[in-house]
């Protein structure tokens, strides 16, 4: 959703709500415990679990204004929220939800243009409040996921 007033005040909003689950998802021992011969025949049934890496909600809101007298410059503030999600198929490791705040200055008009191409610029400062959950790396999340015998259900 986007809106702009004649005076140059603008806003953008996007919301995503989803419910993603595995309908049928069974993994055998060759995948779960490839180096452990004592686990032969073990199976992990993740059917019905939440899908890995997909939050149930995301929200992005932006409010800004063009600078009076310099309508080619826009200043805006943005709020982004991501709901929590699971980092593993067993749904044992949760990545926490987070909200970040950002400021942006952008050029609406190209500073250089030729043959139908243009070059514009912008500068953004993300995560103004230094929210640590927003800075989790894939490696940090992977370190939290350790396959264990409790994650496998013998069927």
List the helices and strands and how they pair.
Layout: E1 2-4, E2 9-17, E3 26-28, H1 29-32, E4 43-45, E5 57-67, E6 70-82, E7 85-86, E8 94-95, E9 98-107, E10 112-114, E11 117-119, E12 122-125, H2 138-144
Antiparallel strand pairs: 1-2, 2-5, 3-4, 5-6, 6-9, 7-8, 9-12, 10-11
What features would you highlight for this structure?
single chain; 155 residues; mainly beta; two-stranded antiparallel ribbon; 2 helices; 12 strands; elongated; disordered C terminus
Portion of residues within helices: under 10%
* Termini separation: 48 Å
Instruction: Give the assembly state of these chains.
Output: single chain
Beta-strand fraction estimate = 35-45%
Provide the gyration radius in Å.
23 Å
Read across the widest sheet, the strand sequence of neighbours is 1-2-5-6-9-12
Largest sheet: 6 strands, antiparallel
Q: What is the string of helix and strand elements?
A: EEEHEEEEEEEEEH
- The average pLDDT is 85
- Provide the structure class: mainly beta
| Strand runs, count | 12
Low-confidence stretches: 148-155
Enumerate how many helices there are, as a single number: 2
What is the 3D form? elongated
